[in-house]
Amino acid sequence: xxxxxxxxxxxxxEHQGTVAVWWVVKPREFKKxxxxxxxxxxxxFEVAGGGIVNPHKHPTHEFYYVTSGYGIMVVGKEKRRIxxxxxxxxxxxxxxxxxxxxxxxxxxxFCFAIAVKGAxxxxxxxx
Length: 127
Hints:
This protein has one helix at residues 31-34; strands at residues 2-5, 12-14, 19-21, 38-47, 53-56, 60-68, 71-75, 78-82, 86-90, 96-100, 107-115. It is mostly beta strands.
């Protein structure tokens, strides 16, 4: 499971030294694995305390960036605790799920996905 965190990085100064930037994924770092794909979606979601994102998969590179709360992320057979500042990369067609660590507090994430070349339309209400 590829989980990266801004907590592990020192900021770099970009735009002529005017902006502190935490590179979670460096420019073009994922070019080879996403080449020929397309931006499938950008969303923000919350899993309520006690809830779960049921195990599912898509033909996309999916990325969850945690904005608040803590959860248990499962990708394939790997399981890991994630929290604010973490970016999770979910490779195409890997079964994944997410649940908050607490029944009393949820986890809130920003999500975007890059579909693989030739991916069919996906019905996200069915997954």
